[in-house]
Specification:
Oligomer: heterodimer
Number of domains of chain B: 4
Strand order of the largest sheet of chain B: 6-7-14-13-9-8
Helix content of chain B: 40-55%
Number of helices of chain B: 21
Distance between the termini of chain A: 102 Å
CATH topology of one domain in chain A: Methane Monooxygenase Hydroxylase, Chain G, domain 1
Number of strands of chain B: 14
Shape of chain B: globular
CATH topology of the largest domain in chain B: Rossmann fold
Radius of gyration of chain B: 26 Å
Largest interface: A-B, 65 and 85 residues
Number of helices of chain A: 7
CATH class of the largest domain in chain B: Alpha Beta
Strand content of chain B: 5-15%
Strand content of chain A: under 5%
Radius of gyration of chain A: 36 Å
Largest sheet of chain A: none
Number of strands of chain A: 1
CATH architecture of the largest domain in chain B: 3-Layer(aba) Sandwich
Helix content of chain A: over 70%
CATH class of one domain in chain A: Mainly Alpha
CATH superfamily of the largest domain in chain B: Sec1/Munc18 (SM) protein, domain 2
Distance between the termini of chain B: 49 Å
Largest sheet of chain B: 6 strands, mixed
Shape of chain A: flat
C-alpha cells in the first residue's frame, strides 16, 4: 500500500516562509527584544509569549500558554495504572491458586491466606477504579470536552469489565476445584465416621471402648474443623464473586455493543449535534418539574400544618 | 477482502505511530471511508478518544493541548482553507496531517505559509480515497451523479470536477493496490473516454514516478464503462438480500435507516448490514428471498433454544454461566431482531406494491422475447390500480428499451397511458432515456438479440426453463467479465488508451462504471471471483444505484438538458 511523505517538502516551504517573514518584522522592531515562540518552545511543550510591540499580544485563552491537561486526565491515568497493577496481580493470583490447590500433607492455610489477600487486593483495586471511573462522568451540557471524557470512560470501562470477567472465571474454577477437594475430604471423614461408629459398636462390649471413643472423637473433631474451614473459604470466594458481579453490572452500562449502530463513527458524530438540542430541552423540562415539585412540597407542608392547627384547636375547645 | 484491508491498513498506520490521547478529524467524505471499515470501539482501543468533523470544529476556548490531532481529509481547496484557519489558532498539542489523495505543491505552500506556530509535525498522503463497502466493491458516493449523461458543453466546469473526482478515486485505488494498469474504455461513451485518458495521463506522465511499481508478468486492466450501456439492471426490482434492502429501503455506507418505516424500538431504527461484522449477513447477502426466509427461521429457532436454556437457571453454576455468556447472548439477540425486522418490513413492502406480479413482468421484459405478449402484460399492469407510479414508470421504460424499434404505435400508446395515469410523471422522461441509452447508443448486447450465439443461448434457456423466474436476469457486466476471462473483449468496442497493449489475459481487473453500480452487479462480481477462474475482478462506480436514484439522475439530467436547450 503506497504512501508519500510530504513532510520534508512542507518543512522546507515553512522555513522559507518564516525567513521571509522574519526580516520584515525586524524592520519595524527597533530595539525591542523579541522572544520567538518558535521551535525550541514547541519542544518544551510550553511557550513564551512574544513580547514584541508588533504582536497584538497573546490573549489569555491562547492554547499555548498552559500546557497542563485538565484534572480528569489524572483520574484516567490513575485508572490505567491500576489496570496495569491488576493485570500483574492476576498473574500472581493464578500461581497462588495452583499452589493452594495442590494436595499437601500439612496445612496449606498459608497458601489460602495468600489467595485471599490477593483476591481482596484485586477486588479493591477494581472497585476503586470503578468509583474513579464515575468521576469521569460529565456534568453539564455536551461539549467537545464531555465527548472526549465519555469516550475515555468507555474505553476504560471495557478494559475493567474484561478484567473482572477474567477474575470471576478464575475464581469460579478455583471454587469448583476447592469444592471437589472438600467433598473428597468429607468423604474420607464420613468413612472415618462410619468406621468409627462400627468399631465403637464392636468395641462397646469390650471395656477398651472409652479410649477408642476418644480417639474417634478427636479424629472427628479434626475432620469437622478442616471441613468448616473449607466452608469458610468457599463462602469468602462466593462473597467476592458477588462483588465482582455487581461491578460488572455497573460497567456493562458503559460498554459499547460491537457490531451495532452505536459502534459506528458516523452515527456518533451525528448524534453529538442532535444531542445538544435534546440536552437543552431536557434541562428545561427538568427545571420546570423541579420548580413544580417544590411547589407541591410546600403545599403539602402547609396543608399538614393546617390540619395540626385544627386538631390543636379542637383539643383546646374540648379540654377547656 | 483486499479493498477493506487496504483502507484499514492505512488507518492503522496513521494511528499506530502516534502515542497518547488522540483526536481524529475527518471531513464529510472521509468520514464515510473510515466508518465503513473501522468501528468506534476499535478507535477507542487505539486511544482515539474524540472524533470531529473539520467543518464543525468549534471556536471554543477550551484548550485541548493534551490531545494530538490526526487530520484525515481530502485535499480539496475548502479543506485547505479550513486547515489554514485552524493552524493559525492551533488548539491541539500536535497536528498530524494525512491527505487521502495527491497534494498539489501550491496547496503545500499555502499550508506552510499559515503554519506560523509550527504546529504541524507531519504531512503525508495516505490514499484511502474510496468507500470500500464490500471486499470487491467500492464506490465514490458522488453527489451530482447525473453529470455523466450531459454533453460537455452544457456544464464544462461541472463535468471537469466530476471527472477529476473520478480520476482521483481510481488513482487512489491503484496506489492502494500498488499497481499501474493498462487502460481500456467504452468507445461509445465520451465521459468514459475522457476519464480513461485523464487517468492515463496522471499515471503515466504527471506522476509516473509515484506509480512506478514493480512490474508483474501481466499488467492489471482498468476498464472504464458507462452506466448507459446497461440501463436495465438499475431499473429492475431485486430479490437477493443486499440488493433487495437497497432497492426497497436504501443502504447507505452499509447502514439502513428504518426511521421512516413505522414505529420500531429505538435500537432497531438504524441498523448496520456489513459482511465483515455480521456472519449471518455474510452467508446470506447473495441468497434470494425465499432462502433467506428459511435461514432466518432457522436462526430464530436456534436463538429460542438458547433463550430457553437461559431461563432454566437452577444452580449457582448456571447463574455464573449465564452471566459469562450474557454479552454473546445479547449480541445474538440484537442480530436476530435486526434481520427479522428487515425481512418483515420488506415483505410488507412487497405485499403493498404487488411486487411479485410486477417483477415477473419486469424479468420477462428483460430476459425473454415476445413483443405482443409483453405489450399486453404491461398494459394490464398500467391499468391495475394497486401498482405504484414508480413501478409503472419502470415497466414502460423496460418495454421501451427492449422494443424500441418494434411497433412504434403501441409504444406511443403506452407513453400516453403512462402520462395519463401518473400525474407526477415528468413527460418525456422515457424518451430522454431512449435518447441516452437507446439501441444506437449501446455497445453491448443487452438483450442477447444481436449476436447469433446469444440468440441461440437464449432459446436454449427458454426451452430449459429457469430455476427462479425472479432472479433469471444476468447483468450485462456478467457477459463483459466472461469476455475478459476468455480474452475476447473486442478492441472495436473497448479500445485501449493511447498505445497501451496487453499481452495475454490480465490477472486483476478493475471495472469502473461511470454513473454508478448496482448491488446486483456487485453480487455478480463476487460470485465470479468465487469461481477462482484465475482473474480477480474489482467493481467500482461513482455511486451505488437503486431504481429511485437512477430515475432521479435521469430527471435531473433531463431538467438541465431542457433548460440548456432553452438558453441555446
Amino acid at each position: 500500500m503506497a504512501t508519500r511523505n510530504r513532510t520534508t517538502v512542507y518543512r522546507k516551504h515553512r522555513d522559507a516562509c518564516k525567513s521571509a517573514r522574519a526580516p520584515l518584522s525586524d524592520s519595524f522592531g527597533g530595539p525591542v527584544i523579541e522572544m520567538v515562540s518558535g521551535s525550541f518552545a514547541r519542544s518544551n511543550h510550553s511557550s513564551y509569549a512574544p513580547l514584541s510591540t508588533n504582536d497584538p499580544g497573546p490573549s489569555s485563552d491562547d492554547a499555548f500558554t498552559i500546557g497542563l491537561p485538565p484534572a480528569w486526565v489524572d483520574d484516567s491515568e490513575e485508572i490505567t495504572f491500576n489496570i496495569q497493577k491488576v493485570r500483574d496481580k492476576m498473574g500472581e493470583l493464578a500461581k497462588a491458586h495452583s499452589k493452594a490447590l495442590m494436595p499437601t500433607f500439612g496445612d496449606n492455610r498459608g497458601d489460602q491466606r495468600v489467595v485471599e489477600m490477593l483476591t481482596h487486593e484485586i477486588t479493591d483495586l477494581l472497585r476503586k477504579s470503578e468509583k474513579r471511573l464515575h468521576n469521569l462522568s460529565t456534568r453539564g451540557g455536551p461539549s467537545q470536552e464531555s465527548n472526549l471524557r465519555k469516550n475515555v470512560q468507555r474505553s476504560l470501562a471495557t478494559d475493567l469489565q474484561s478484567l473482572s470477567m477474567e477474575l470471576r472465571r478464575k475464581q469460579s474454577t478455583y471454587l469448583k476445584r476447592l469444592q471437589q477437594q472438600k467433598e473428597g475430604q468429607d468423604g474420607v471423614d464420613l468413612e472415618f465416621n462410619m468406621n468409627g461408629k462400627m468399631s465403637r459398636l464392636d468395641e462397646d462390649e469390650e471395656l477398651g471402648g472409652m479410649g477408642f471413643d476418644e480417639h474417634q472423637t478427636v479424629k472427628l473433631k479434626e475432620g469437622q474443623h478442616v471441613s468448616a474451614e473449607r466452608e469458610r473459604e468457599i463462602q469468602q470466594v462466593l462473597g467476592s464473586v458477588n462483588d465482582l458481579a455487581q461491578i460488572m453490572k455497573d460497567l456493562s452500562a458503559l460498554v459499547i455493543d460491537q457490531g451495532t449502530i452505536v459502534d459506528r463513527i458516523d452515527y456518533n458524530i451525528q448524534n453529538v449535534s442532535s444531542s445538544v438540542e435534546e440536552g437543552y430541552k431536557q434541562l428545561q423540562k427538568a427545571e420546570r418539574t423541579q420548580r413544580e415539585g417544590a411547589m407541591v412540597k410546600c403545599a403539602t407542608i402547609l396543608l399538614i400544618l393546617c390540619l395540626i392547627m385544627i386538631v390543636l384547636l379542637i383539643l383546646k375547645n374540648v379540654l377547656f | 477482502m483486499v479493498l477493506v484491508t487496504s483502507v484499514r491498513d492505512y488507518i492503522n498506520r496513521m494511528l499506530h505511530d502516534i502515542s497518547g490521547m488522540k483526536v481524529l478529524i475527518l471531513d464529510s467524505e472521509t468520514v464515510s471511508n473510515v466508518s465503513i471499515v473501522y468501528s468506534q470501539s476499535e478507535l477507542l482501543q487505539k486511544e482515539v478518544f474524540l472524533v470531529e468533523m473539520i467543518d464543525s470544529i468549534p471556536v471554543s476556548k477550551e484548550s485541548m493541548s493534551h490531545l494530538k490531532a490526526v487530520y484525515f481529509v481530502r485535499p480539496t481547496s475548502e479543506n485547505i482553507q479550513k486547515l489554514r484557519y485552524q493552524l493559525a489558532n492551533p488548539r491541539f498539542g500536535e497536528h498530524h496531517l494525512f491527505f487521502s489523495n495527491l497534494l498539489k505543491d501550491t496547496q503545500i505552500h499555502i499550508l506552510a505559509d499559515s503554519d506560523e506556530h509550527e504546529a504541524v509535525q507531519q504531512v503525508q498522503e495516505f490514499y484511502a480515497d474510496f468507500v470500500a463497502g464490500d471486499p470487491y466493491h467500492f464506490t465514490l458516493n458522488m453527489p451530482s451523479n447525473h453529470l455523466y449523461m450531459l454533453p460537455a458543453v452544457v456544464d464544462p466546469s461541472g463535468l471537469q470536477r466530476y471527472s477529476d473526482r473520478v480520476v482521483d478515486g481510481i488513482a487512489a485505488l491503484f496506489l492502494a493496490l500498488k499497481r499501474r494498469p493498462v487502460i481500456r474504455y467504452q468507445r461509445t461513451s465520451d465521459t468514459a473516454k475522457r476519464i480513461a485518458q485523464e487517468t492515463a495521463k496522471l499515471m503515466y506522465q504527471h506522476e509516473s514516478g509515484l506509480f512506478d511499481f514493480r512490474r508483474t508478468e501481466s499488467s492489471p486492466l482498468l476498464l472504464v464503462i458507462d452506466r448507459r450501456d446497461d440501463p436495465v439492471t438499475p431499473l429492475l426490482n431485486q430479490w437477493t438480500y443486499q440488493a433487495m434492502v437497497h432497492e426497497l429501503i436504501g443502504l447507505q455506507d452499509n447502514k439502513v435507516d428504518l426511521r421512516a418505516i413505522g414505529s420500531l424500538p429505538k435500537d432497531q431504527q438504524e441498523v448496520v448490514l456489513s459482511s465483515e461484522q455480521d456472519a449471518f449477513f455474510k452467508s446470506n447477502m447473495y441468497e434470494n428471498f425465499g432462502d433467506i426466509g428459511m435461514n432466518i427461521k432457522r436462526m430464530v429457532d436456534d436463538f429460542q433454544q438458547v433463550a430457553k436454556s437461559n431461563q432454566n437457571i437452577q444452580t449457582v453454576e448456571d447463574m455464573a454461566r449465564f452471566v459469562d455468556n450474557y454479552p454473546e447472548y445479547k449480541k445474538m439477540q440484537g442480530n436476530v431482531s435486526k434481520h427479522v425486522t428487515l425481512v418483515t418490513e420488506m415483505s410488507k413492502l412487497v405485499e403493498a406494491r404487488k411486487l411479485m406480479l410486477v417483477s415477473q413482468t419486469e424479468q420477462d421484459l428483460a430476459c425473454n422475447g415476445g413483443q405482443g405478449a409483453a405489450y399486453e402484460a404491461v398494459t394490464d399492469l398500467l391499468n391495475n390500480e394497486s401498482v405504484s407510479d414508480i413501478d409503472r414508470l419502470r415497466l414502460v421504460m423496460l418495454y421501451a428499451l427492449r422494443y424500441e424499434k418494434e411497433n412504434p404505435v403501441q409504444l406511443m400508446q403506452l407513453f400516453n397511458k403512462l402520462a395519463s395515469r401518473s400525474p407526477k410523471y415528468k413527460p418525456g422522461l422515457v424518451q430522454f432515456l431512449l435518447k441516452q441509452a437507446g439501441v444506437e447508443k449501446r455497445t453491448g448486447d443487452l438483450f442477447g438479440n444481436r449476436d447469433l450465439m446469444n440468440i441461440a443461448r437464449n432459446m436454449a434457456r427458454g426451452l430449459k426453463g429457469v430455476e427462479n423466474v425472479y432472479t433469471q436476469h444476468q447483468p450485462l457486466l456478467f457477459q463483459t467479465m466472461e469476455s475478459i476471462t476468455r480474452g475476447r473483449l473486442r478492441d472495436v468496442d473497448y479500445p485501449f488508451v493511447g498505445d497501451h497493449f496487453q499481452q495475454g489475459r490480465p490477472q486483476e481487473v478493475v471495472i469502473f462504471m461511470v454513473g454508478g453500480t448496482t448491488y446486483e452487479e456487485s453480487r455478480s462480481v463476487a460470485l465470479q471471483n468465487a469461481t477462482n477462474s484465475g482473474i480477480r475482478f474489482i467493481l467500482g462506480g461513482t455511486a451505488v444505484l437503486n431504481s429511485k436514484r437512477f430515475l432521479l439522475d435521469l430527471e435531473e439530467a433531463q431538467r438541465i438538458a431542457r433548460s440548456g436547450s432553452h438558453m441555446v
